[in-house]
Amino acid sequence: MAQRAALAGTRVRTWVGGVLAAALGLGAASCSSTGGKRAEDEAAQAGGRPAVSTPRWTVAMVTHSGQGDTFWDIVQKGAEQGAAKDNINFTYAASPEANEQAQLVQNAIDQKVDGIIVSLAKPAAMKGVVEKAIAAGIPVITINSGTKESKEFGALTHIGQDETLAGEAVGEQLNRTGRKKALCILHEQGNVGHEERCAGAKKTFDGTLENLYVEGTDMPSVEQSIDAKLTADPAIDAVVTLGAPFANTAAQAKKRAGSDAEISTFDLNEGVARSLQDGTLAFAVDQQPYLQGYEAVDLLWLYKYNANTLGGGLPVLTGPQIVTRDEAAELEKYARRGTR
Q: How much is the pTM?
């Protein structure tokens, strides 16, 4: 398993280097001759300028979480910068309710957009509307969650991390730090990706791992739940949260409970980078959300422009990358600007 995780990390780093090199090269190309002043103004706001003169296609992104969530803010920023480069009119909408997310996708279909990017946290609720989009001739790329369902639904490709593989990497990291009893905090019931993360960690962890379901929309309740569990069971020596905003909450619960448990998390942001450096957190699992947004837009542009696809029927992996104190200082400057 360790070799498998290491190989995935190597592939991701190699691929990321190619992506960044391509982005820098495109940034030096000439400005769009068709987008006009509006395209240039929007591009400037997004941190770039059109590098192509293709038609101004419209791409809609619809996710199961949205503005105000530090992870999805980074996804959106990547998508906006990719859209600026590709002369794309980019729209974004989100809802944590699966039926509402499906309706937002239907709205994009009704508006006859040129491409749709969608997350599949609750794939059963999204299957019908994704298939409607494809039947209407609208190419779809899935991101973040729904790796297994993406191809079945007919999407061009899926961009994200393999959640099971990411969980396995967590279990192996817990083994390396000598943990014996871990708590995996699930903050969104029904999210298939979250279940896969905890299941993957349980598979490779040599100790025992227990799932704790919490109400992710109520942070005081989350803290109380973790505090109560740590107080009741002092043998718990590791807590893994599944999103950056919950890492600090778990750290606070640990303090209240007087626990010595090691706190780790999925996802990276500026706060997590600082907490890794000061020892509050042991490690983070970065799935590089900027790439999920940027590459989804860019691949839709490539498909519209040149009928290109990527992945060969397999997902395009953006993670996992285990980040510890050693890497955190270097990555903090990128997290500070909102791209890691």
A: 0.82
